[in-house]
Design goal:
It is a single chain. By secondary structure, this protein is an alpha/beta fold. The chain has two domains: 6-160, P-loop containing nucleotide triphosphate hydrolases (Rossmann fold, 3-Layer(aba) Sandwich), CATH 3.40.50.300; 170-262, Arc Repressor Mutant, subunit A (Orthogonal Bundle). The protein is 44% helix and 21% strand. The chain has eleven helices and ten strands. Strands 3-2-4-5-1-6-7 form a seven-stranded mixed β-sheet. It has a three-stranded antiparallel β-sheet with strand order 8-10-9. Helix 8 crosses helix 11 (247-273) and helix 9 (196-207) crosses helix 10 (213-225). The chain is elongated and about 65 Å long. The two termini are 24 Å apart.
Length: 274
């Protein structure tokens, strides 16, 4: 994503503002993400939960325990009365954005930043990443000072947006995926059996990278020839799974890849900070 320009920085440099953007993929439990925001809440604090869902439905799903929760709809956000100069807010944007245009989303996010200039605001905004293209995500991101991205497996990115965020172009992401495609395929199939179409759709969902059958299927064949994968055929569809007794070897290969990547990242950080 782009580094923030000076105009965007003025929106997120507001005193007392902690404005977190948490993106999640469709299979992730958004309520678990929102619940993880609560340990920082004191017993006597109230948290405002902004959602387009029905209040009873939200209360049933949230299960936030003893936290004092006030549920409001998006239209009530501008009428908030902020007592003691402090407010904790969770915006369930995944329930709202299906009926919003980008300018309406930006207006809401900008309003949160304006509040942060006057009050101590901690705000978590949770968005379903599958509902937006990368350009819209970049527009939303500029209003926040922290970013997290959670897939069905793990949180893959966490950190400050300001000063540390660099642009990762579509071409760069595609290159990273293709350079690590064998590892990605093994990681996906280790989790559950998949056919080639499932793999292509998952990679597109997670990384916004489109791959052709001519890229996927030769790799699947190669991994089968190495004794790492096997397949069952149902009609014309081949569903791949780890070969018998191959799971320890696959885990070892994945661990080696992670360690190598960590060492490379450490080296690059050292080189860029000296």
């Amino acid at each position: 994503m782009n580094s923030l320009n000076s105009q965007s920085r003025s929106k997120v440099d507001a005193k007392g503002l902690n404005h977190i953007l948490h993106l999640y993929t469709p299979k992730v439990d958004k309520y678990a993400i929102q619940g993880a925001f609560l340990p920082s809440i004191r017993n006597d604090e109230e948290i405002v939960y902004v959602t387009a869902s029905k209040p009873k439905s939200s209360i049933r799903e949230l299960n936030f325990g003893d936290v004092k929760l006030r549920i409001i709809n998006p239209e009530e956000l501008r009428d908030l009365k902020i007592e003691d100069g402090e407010m904790k807010i969770i915006i369930d944007a995944g329930s709202i954005t299906k009926r919003e245009k980008i300018n309406e989303i930006e207006e809401r996010e900008g309003y949160i930043n304006e509040l942060g200039k006057k009050y101590l605001i901690n705000c978590l905004c949770t968005y379903d990443i599958s509902k937006f293209n990368p350009d819209v995500i970049k527009q939303i991101a500029k209003y926040h000072n922290k970013l997290r991205l959670t897939t069905s497996d793990l949180t893959v990115l966490s950190g400050d947006f300001i000063d540390k965020s660099k642009k990762l172009s579509d071409d760069s992401m595609a290159k990273i995926v293709k350079d690590n495609l064998k590892t990605i395929i093994l990681a996906l199939i280790q989790k559950k059996p998949m056919c080639g179409t499932d793999i292509m759709e998952t990679i597109h969902l997670e990384f916004n990278v489109l791959l052709s059958p001519g890229t996927i299927y030769p790799l699947l064949h190669s991994l089968k020839e190495r004794g790492l994968l096997t397949f069952q055929k149902n009609g014309k569809v081949k569903t791949y799974a780890p070969a018998e007794d191959a799971e320890p070897k696959i885990r070892s290969l994945l661990d080696e890849q992670i360690q190598a990547r960590n060492l490379l990242n450490l080296y690059l950080r050292q080189e860029t900070t000296t």
